[in-house]
Amino acid sequence: MISNLTILPVLIPLIAGIIATLFHKKLTLVRIFSQVSTIISTIVASYVFYYVIQNGTLVLESGDWMAPYGIVLVGDLLSVTLVLTTNIVALAAVFYAPYSLSDEQESFYFYTFYFLLISGVSGAFITGDLFNLFVFFEVLLMASYALIILGGGKVQLRESIKYVLINLFSSMLFVTTIAFLYSVVGTVNMAQIGQRVSEVNQSGILTTIAFLLFFVFGTKAALFPLYYWLPRPYIAPNPVISALFGALLTKVGIYSIFRVFTIIFVHETAITHQFFIWIAAFTLIFGVIGALSTNNIKLIVAYNIIPAVGFMIAGIGIYNETALSGAVYYLVNDMIIKAALFLLVGAIAYLAGTSDLRKMKGLIHHYPMLGWLLFISAFVLAGVPPFSGFIGKLLILQGAIEANEIIITIIGLLVSLLILFSVMRIFIQGFWGEKDAAIVPNKPLARKLMLPVAFLISFSVFLGIGAEWFYPITEEIGNNLMNPELYIKSVLKE
Amino acid sequence: MEIIMAILAGILFTTGVYNLLQKQLLRIIIGTALISHGAHLFILTMGKLKRGAPPILDKTITDYTDPLPQALILTSIVISFGVTSLLLVLAYRASKENGTDNMETLRGNQND
Amino acid sequence: MLFAVFFPILLALIIPFLSKWKTTIHTGYFVLLAPLSIFIYFLQFIGTDFQTRSGSYSWIPSLNINLDFYLDGLSLLFVLLISGIGALVTFYSIFYLDTSEKLGHFYVYLLIFMTAMFGVVLSDNVFVLYTFWELTSISSFLLIGYWNFKERSRYGALKSMLITVFGGLSMLGGFIILVNITGTTSIQEMISQADVIFASPYFVLTLVLIVLGAFTKSAQFPFHIWLPDAMEAPTPVSAYLHSATMVKAGIFLIARFTPIYTLSELFFVIISGFGIITLIWGSFMAVRQTDLKGILAFSTISQLGMIMAMLGFGTKAAIFAAVFHILNHATFKGSLFMVAGIIDHESGTRDIRKLGGLMTLMPISATLAFFGTFSMAGVPLPFLNGFYSKEKFFDASLNLGESSLWIAEILRVAIPYLAVFGSIFTFVYSMYLVFGTFLGEKHLDKLPKKPHEAPIGMLIPPSILIIGVIVIGLFPNLVNESFLAFTAEAIYGKPVETHIQFWHGLIPAFYMSLIVVVVGTILALYQKKWRKVYDYFPGKLSFNRVYDWLIAKLESYSKTLTDSYMNGSIRRYMILILTAIVLVTFSVMLITGGFVIDYSDLAPITIQEVFVALAMAFAAIATIFTRNKIAAILILGVVGYGLAVLFVFYRAPDLALTQLVVETITVALFLLCFYHLPNLRERTEGIKEKSGNLIISVAFGLLMTMVAISAHSSKAFEAISQYFIETSYKLGGGDNVVNVILVDMRGIDTLFEIVVLGIAALGIYSLVKLRSKKEAE
Is 0.90 surpassed by the pTM of this model? Predict the structure, then answer.
């Protein structure tokens, strides 16, 4: 049955993760196994993606329990796009890992946690059931807890606690909120919730519950004023782990907001979505201010997660087809470029021997390619054309103008400038200037670390220049998101 | 009864959050445990209390309590258990490693 | 046209390989190929029978972003400038840059810049225009930072990028709004809908946004500050980007959009107002400079202001004068920069205080400089093109149309005086530049090198430009009728009379020129006496300081602000998060009338349940007060077991069992882990902290309770679980519905719940094991 395809992107990493525990001490074997499995998973994800483009949404009713009673897995265009992007990020990470992690970290189940993280993330993207979303959240969070503490010392453990605590709290709030919602609408299937909420025209209590859910997802997505937990724990572990976190975890939160506020709570947009626009404005500003506040290059990148999320939430808040398809474009781009930046900055910090910008200079003489990769990624991040960040940003801003939201447009433009500034500081201070004689270049290692980064960045550049191939997809996603009845129909088959 | 249970769960949340805002790690973790108890109680309450027999089928009974919240709670209990255990060990290790169990002294600064 | 735009960047791809042989053949010779061939190609379009042409190539058609190229008189003028000056500068750079420099980098940046610049002036699509626009900023950034081992160079590069990218983004904002109003991305189609745009409520906003883009790029007051610092770039770059081409992109932009915005008087006020201020400020500040390139930078600023002002006038004559001056400025300023580069190259300094009397040592350069500066000063001689455009400028300033806007009216009256005032200083700095360098005493001992005439290769390009100055001066109508007429027409929208004569008779404009020369000469002669003015005005006041202050404050404030809440305290984070949740959710509940309470459908209250509930509540509260860790853990156990008892009451036997087991293990784990940790201490927080915590936690608990009660009171649908009860046995094959749900209907949940436990186990294992391994070593 072809709809079984839907679960493969969740199942393959799950099985690979379990198998990887069997020979976790045999590093060469486990590396090759992981790399091959990730490639297979990516190929499968690409096929699912291709299949959904050709044939439309895939719905898998698990255990043959018909929707809305059993758990449905829904591979719609948005889900499969994000699953594919996840796999691309994973691919870069798995090739970067051997050169970045210590042998001990690798042998203590890094690959298992890694696969289960991917499995959880893919599951969260694919599930059509709110409680099941909670379970997948827990899978990916638990894997992230395990990763963040992996082989850590003082600092890492200290930051991990904060990370676990905040996430634990929001998970509990999440599960409670699901219960509230269940009480009112009597179901946990997202499509059916959407249908029932629209039948009672989203009564006051439902809007209240909507806000609770928004705060749950907003905490995971690192929105203002909920993002405090993010920056420092994110830079505590190894760069490859930071990259997975930066690229995937917050995005799951954003994705959930996308889902919930386009399928379920769409009847009081004057309250909910208008509120998001304000949240977006503050997220953009405070995030980029954070990025400017530090000389720690890893922290600069970590803080830059926040304004990016701000752009996406603005897209949802504006709530028209243009802005939503822009937000999706931005989301895909951001997953890739954030992963690239974390890996890149990790490599820079490792090769320069410090992550303090004030102690760096003239790296371009030793590692020219590294410098140019950073240079390009700064422009991708800031959304300068023809790179991919631009397309998403342009669409979001166009959507904002269509909705007469001038203020957010202007803030968005100014923040782009500051984003560019924050990253360009690394280039100017770290790479320009006189040669640092103290550095003994390690070019072979640099090359190995750079390859996955170059892969991601070229993909991102391709997303920008070849926008004509991708935009129709996000346009259709935008259209689907604006018409929740399409999703509901394909799940409930009415 | 549902209202009393809602209040009780609210109290569990209140005390949980209050503990969460303390400095000492042990208190904080006790706080998380209280919150998860509160959450489970909320779930149960949301499914209408005592409207029938336990959901174990029997030919003679027609009314059962809502089984779905129970299933959800079961999943959630197990998950919370996993998280709490990990958190406990982590807290133990972190406080050993850093030589303190006071979260306010575990703030850290930007340069590390 | 596609090829013309992309030829340089394609060439740039192979330059790194060509530069490997730079010792045998200077890389510049290969580079020359691009501008030269493009120049020759576009030269063929000049002629009285000029027709606009266009070409279109798809890029992202679904977003209406296509490579639509459009060649009219305006773009033709710029294309020829870019390629012509480009060829000369490249040739010049061959002799200027030693082969020991990183030539590969230099020429790659330069070629990227050429592509970007051609793209800007040829694009009809606003978004493509924006793309190339930012590319010019980026390549300019790289070129200014070419000698990035110098601190000043890095500073200048960053400054120029921040300011021009700021302008670029604001321009993008303007474009987005324009596209939204007109529904097209083509500039020409927008022009045809000028009245629609004028009627839009966003008209002024788009004007301001687009003008910001133009002003930052063209270094208009107060955004001019990046240009003097951009002089850190190698001189060929200054001559090319920062005098002849890139800084004129802003002028180009305004010219392009003139047909749309000229409908508004505001356009005149903003463009001419700032233009004239820039003219005065630039020329006034130029006299203050001591660096040759600094003088030229401020002079460029001032001249750009003059062109801008003329575009703002919007009259036929003014637009023609503006176009004419764009060409003239490129010729004399380009040559002057090259001469400045020669002096720097041959004498080792650009400090005018150390220079002097170079006339005898560098006669050819001196001659070139004389022609250049006199043309710039607008000295009334029939073989200097600068004079013509200056006089046209005066003439136009006297013939502005009446206006209904009071501010426009004031400006109209003031402009002729301001124009003369600014031009006097233009005259002064021109004289200061040429006489200070080439005449007067020699201070050869102060110079790092003994100066001598430059190699012939460096002299050819400025000579060609000076020949241009003279030829245009002698036969202005040669370029006008066959070429500039079309440029002016493209801006004005209608054919423009372009015939120019040297002698117009004793018209007012001629008197104005005369005043400039006379007063200027006096001021130039007695310069030393009044230079002190600069100590008082602007003194320490400058926009540079504003920029530096902004950047410094941006970093320090963002640090202060961020550190103020990102202090690493989990308590602080939680309080902020909870406050947000509580405040917002309560307000929403209030606004939407979300709180409902319904007593009709409740389970009966029984004593046992209440008793258990009370016990649990007490235990929960007691955890706060207890000081003994073992006691705290046991009290927590009371809550957990109490919950299990409630599960029994509420007909959930499976839950009760699970809860019992889990609670027991948890308590054991708690005891195990915390056996080694210090006992609970007296809570030491102050009353303020305490009450803060209390308010937050009570508010949050209350919120949850209220939402729960409302949710329970607004059950609107039959729960899906009825289906589970009906089908549990039939389809699931089990009597225990909860179990069937877990293993069958929601099997995925259970599968992944086990996965969670597995990860937790492995995580704990690695947490404990990895450390003991480390300790063992």
Answer: yes
